[in-house]
Amino acid sequence: MEILIAFLVMFAVAVVAGILLLVISHFFAVPENPQKQIIRECLPGINCGACGYKGCDDYAAALAEGGVKPSLCIPGAQSVADRISDILGIEPEPIKDVVAFVACNGYCEANPPKATYEGVKTCYAASMIYGGAHSCRFGCLGYGDCATACPSKAICMVDGIAHVDTARCIGCGLCAKTCPKHIISMLPQETLTAVMCSNKQKGADARKACKNACIGCKKCEKVCPNGAISVVDNLAVVDYTKCTNCETCIKECPTGCLKSVFFPDIPENCEFEDLVD
Length: 277
Fold this sequence. Notes:
About 30% of the residues lie in helices and about 10% in strands. By secondary structure, the protein is α+β, with helices and mostly antiparallel strands. It has two domains: about 35-90, Electron transport complex subunit B, putative Fe-S cluster (3-methyladenine DNA Glycosylase II, Chain A, domain 3); about 100-260, 2-Layer Sandwich (Alpha-Beta Plaits), CATH 3.30.70.20. The strands form four sheets. Strands 1-4 form a two-stranded antiparallel ribbon. A two-stranded antiparallel sheet has the order 2-3. A two-stranded antiparallel ribbon has the order 5-8. It is extended. The model has no long low-confidence stretch (mean pLDDT about 90).
């Protein structure tokens, strides 16, 4: 009998608490902006965070509240921005398509190992051990953290370096955020000239680490007719607002770290995972 009474008391408490919660949720519920769901249906649902919010739900909520640009969804590109602008009744903004670019050409032969790494096979773990096992501490570690993070399966590893299939790349930037060496950046799709190096050591040390490294000689800086290249921290940097893709710098680069690139680009010898609908 005592057990039955205790059970009935607990059951009654649970019922009362449930009723109270139901009443509270009914009277104190915050009404949701009806535009949020409409906008949310326009977004791709990748939840990549490229817009600066935690995911598509948060971005949709911010858009519905107002004061946020509808052009922040990089994977959605111009079509999504136009649809959201129509819903909000504002003028659409043009979006520049971007793709991921790996600023490293230190393949196995060019960037030999300085030690044998036998730890966890991730770039993050390898970078914690003296910057990695390769001679160049600025280069790609080759364990594919970026490929794992990529939602469109646009990255593969060949010769110890990450390669991007820019035809698949949606420009979300997750690979750039994941790379512990910060050698991946998002470039405009109209880019034709890029620096395939991230080494900021002085010339002799950089060349010793990798034969394809930028040596900071400033030849590219001197010959560029538009002032689009400058050497910062011993590394060539391209100002794409000034670059006209004349390729003068590429012809003068003694180590070949300045390259012509063509987007979309499908790397050779790459085996990409099939996309899942």
